[in-house]
Write a sequence for this structure.
């Protein structure tokens, strides 16, 4: 009798919840207004990219608005040919890929290790160590820029790949996100694995990493974007043209009196890889943002 009463109570509460949710849903006019607002916001957000692409296809033309923004007049790929052949943009692209991809793999692995330790292990001073490490978020990067450069210069890391990558691997935000996600994983999984004789590193590789795929994909996209768009540290640590990243290299074109269309073509080339990366990992990003535990 008690179970029947509880079941009816749950059904009534669920029914009230559905009615409340339907009451919060926008009406027909509200839906139209919402779509109009989202369309306007989308147009304003996309317009700078549209203008960049269209103007890059019109080299040697005087920019006249709105005529220059019409995509079907006087189209030419000369700016892209000049960028890919006359500049060292392919070398800059290779440097940026190395900087971004190696940093993503290293940051994800190290932050997952630290997140697992802070979330599931017990050791003296864990909370103090975690919050002290997290306090790094409140310290602006510019404050530590000079000491970091002096340290890298002393170690011989100036104008090298490892000097470019190494200082960016201690990512407090990544450790925090991994710790918060791993805390939600059930402890029974880890206890069962220990009973079966699995070591901690095997548990990390066979249990933690597979269950963290959504947050790893989300974090990987963000870390990739941070490093791909990074400008200040690559500018400081890279002295030669051969070590420039895309952001630094495209910025250096301004000092060479390069036409606007050529600079915009270089920007389009720099934008294309991160746009493709997001399209490929979009599903995992959505799962990492909305997911709160283990599915199934």
């Amino acid at each position: 009798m008690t179970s029947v009463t509880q079941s009816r109570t749950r059904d009534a509460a669920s029914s009230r919840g559905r009615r409340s949710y339907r009451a919060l849903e926008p009406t027909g006019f509200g839906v139209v207004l919402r779509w109009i607002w989202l369309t306007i916001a989308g147009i304003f957000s996309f317009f700078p990219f549209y203008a960049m692409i269209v103007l890059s296809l019109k080299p040697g033309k005087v920019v006249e608005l709105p005529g220059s923004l019409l995509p079907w007049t006087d189209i030419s790929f000369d700016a892209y040919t000049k960028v890919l052949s006359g500049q060292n943009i392919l070398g800059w692209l290779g440097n940026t890929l190395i900087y971004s991809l190696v940093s993503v793999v290293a940051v994800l692995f190290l932050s997952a290790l630290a997140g697992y330790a802070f979330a599931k292990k017990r050791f003296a001073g864990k909370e103090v160590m975690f919050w002290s490490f997290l306090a790094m978020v409140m310290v602006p990067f510019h404050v530590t820029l000079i000491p970091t450069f002096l340290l890298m210069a002393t170690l011989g890391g100036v104008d090298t790949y490892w000097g470019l990558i190494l200082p960016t691997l201690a990512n407090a935000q990544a450790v925090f996100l991994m710790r918060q996600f791993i805390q939600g994983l059930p402890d029974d999984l880890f206890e069962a694995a220990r009973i079966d004789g699995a070591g901690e590193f095997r548990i990390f590789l066979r249990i933690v990493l597979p269950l963290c795929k959504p947050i790893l994909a989300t974090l990987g996209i963000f870390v990739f974007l941070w490093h791909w768009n990074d400008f200040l540290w690559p500018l400081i640590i890279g002295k030669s043209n051969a070590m420039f990243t895309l952001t630094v290299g495209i910025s250096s074109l301004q000092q060479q009196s390069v036409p606007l269309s050529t600079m915009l073509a270089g920007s389009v080339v720099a934008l294309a890889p991160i746009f493709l990366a997001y399209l490929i990992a979009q599903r995992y990003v959505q799962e990492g943002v909305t997911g709160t535990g283990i599915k199934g």
Remarks:
- The chain has 14 helices and no strands.
